Amino acid sequence: MSGLPALEDDYLPEDDAAETALERLLGLSEMFPEPVRNTVGTTVRVTGKAAKKAYELSRSITWIVFASSTLMFAPVLFEMERHQMEEMQKQQQRQMLLGPNAAYSR
């Protein structure tokens, strides 16, 4: 014999698989007093609700910020584009009236 304990014939590894993780967790939770279990349960629920509210608030704030910035900066961008178009038209008029080199001198 090699000195190792002999395996018992009645031990079957499949018996452990019958117990689910939830059952095992429930069994472990019974070793704590009721007030501790209630406090942990309440803490988990409150934390979950707070995380959900924070996520919803961040979505709303993000939408408001991007929508507002779009509405505020769009007119500025359009005005800049219009100003560039006017400058290009003025340069084309100068070029037509005074020649190709006159368009770039001021």
Task: Please explain how this structure is put together.
The chain has 106 residues and is mainly α. It has three helices and no strands. The protein has a domain at 30-98. Helix content is 74%, strand content 0%. The model has no long low-confidence stretch (mean pLDDT 84). Keywords: Membrane, Mitochondrion, Mitochondrion outer membrane, Protein transport, Receptor, Translocation, Transmembrane, Transmembrane helix, Transport. Its main location: mitochondrion.
Distance between the amino and carboxyl termini: 106 Å
How many whole angstroms does the radius of gyration measure?
Answer: 38 Å
Number of helical runs? 3
Instruction: Return the string of H and E elements.
Output: HHH
On the 0 to 100 scale, the average pLDDT is: 84
The proportion of residues forming helix, as a percent range, comes to over 70%
How many β-strand stretches? 0
